[in-house]
Each structure stands twice: as structure tokens, then as C-alpha cells.
Specification:
The chain starts with 7 loop residues before the first helix and ends with a helix. It has eleven helices and eight strands. By secondary structure, it is of the alpha/beta class. It is 48% helix and 15% strand.
Amino acid sequence: MSVQTLSREQAAGKVMVALDYPDAASAEKLLAALEGIPCYMKVGMQLFYAAGPDFVRSLKQRGYKVFLDVKMHDIPNTVKGGANSVTRLGVDMFNVHAAGGRDMMEAAMDGVDEALDADSTLARPTVIAVTQLTSTSLEMLNDEIGILGTMEEAVKRYALLAIASGLDGVVASPHEVTLVKDFCGPTFQTVTPGIRPAGVDIGDQSRVMTPSEALQAGTDYMVIGRPITKAADPRAAIESIIEELIKP
């Protein structure tokens, strides 16, 4: 796949920094180090449960795009309410679990629509579905989760279910990006965790790629946490990644 030439701002906008911190004060230290870099900020369960909606609002006030990564997975009515709430919060992206099924995903979109109908000043968030976590190995998929077949088959099934439910894209490992784009079309968005610059420990991830490899695979966004947040110099770490994306 040919890769377009990215500006520095475009490259930075593809990077979602995972703010996996136990409290707002810890996250603020990283935000200070990265000030002025126009990357996405990903707020996951740990930080959202600790710091709450006000922290998300503060990120939006500072001009960041925010991916709220809380992986909604519940009965349709509950997910509809959750989707309504986070749309009103003003997040730019949030996710649900594709394993919740079509009714649940369609309910999430209904919740978004109802929030937008009630407040015309709100922007429509991008809604994506989790296919399989990047920590999931084939053995775990088959023997523990109970889904038979290959990882690619499982991801394809969930991606097709997500697009049929009206969602905008999926979370998948970089190894499944080409598969998703082939079956769901080039505009169906992919958000890829499991991104590790060369020479960085992969930690608990099973299916990983470097930033330039993920870009060449065609991903739209790449979630990067510890290689930036645990780096001795986080700003230098993200700048290196941006340079890699500009010149893959």
C-alpha cells in the first residue's frame, strides 16, 4: 500500500497518547511535557474512573482531541445511555465492544443521535468497536474465549458487524488493518493499539508493529502509551515517532 506524505501536524494527529495514569496530577505532568504537540489524547478506564468528566473537559478546553476508551459492553439500553452521556461530554471518539452485538451497537448510535438532536452545538463523535484486544493470542481466542478459527476471521466478523450497525470503525491490531479495509472499505477507520517503536519492549501486547509499519498497513490512528509515557524524555519519544511517520 502506498503511503501519503504527511505534514508534521498530520503525523502528530495520527498518534493517540494513552494517558494510562491513576490520577489527573500524574497525567498533567505528561501534558506539560507534550505541550504544543497536536496529538490525540486517549483517556482510558483507569484515569476516567479516577478523574472523571471534568478531566476530559479540561483536555477539550486546551484544544486536544479526546478518545474516551471505556469499551462499553452492556445491555442495549444501558449502552445507549452511556453513548448519550459521552456525546454530551464532547469527546471526539469513543468505543464499544463488538461482542455486545448489533442491537447494542445500534443502540449506541441511537444514544449519539439523541444527544445531537437535543443540542445542535455538539459535534458528532466517531464511534468505533473493539474487535479483539491486542493482548489476545490465538490460543486465548480459541481455548479461553471460545471463538474458534483464526484471529483474522474473528476480527473480520466483528468489523463487518460494526459497519452493518452504523459504526465508523474498529479497534484492531495493526496486523488486521489491511483485512478490515479490504472488507469494510478504505473510509472505515482503524485505531490500532500494539504500536511499539523498534527496540522497545512489547510488554503485554501480542500483535505489534512499529509506527511506520502500521502507517504502511493503512491505519488511521495508532494508540501509543508506555513508549511515550514511560520514556525518560516523553517529548523526545513522541517527536521521534512523528519523524518516523513523516519519513516512513
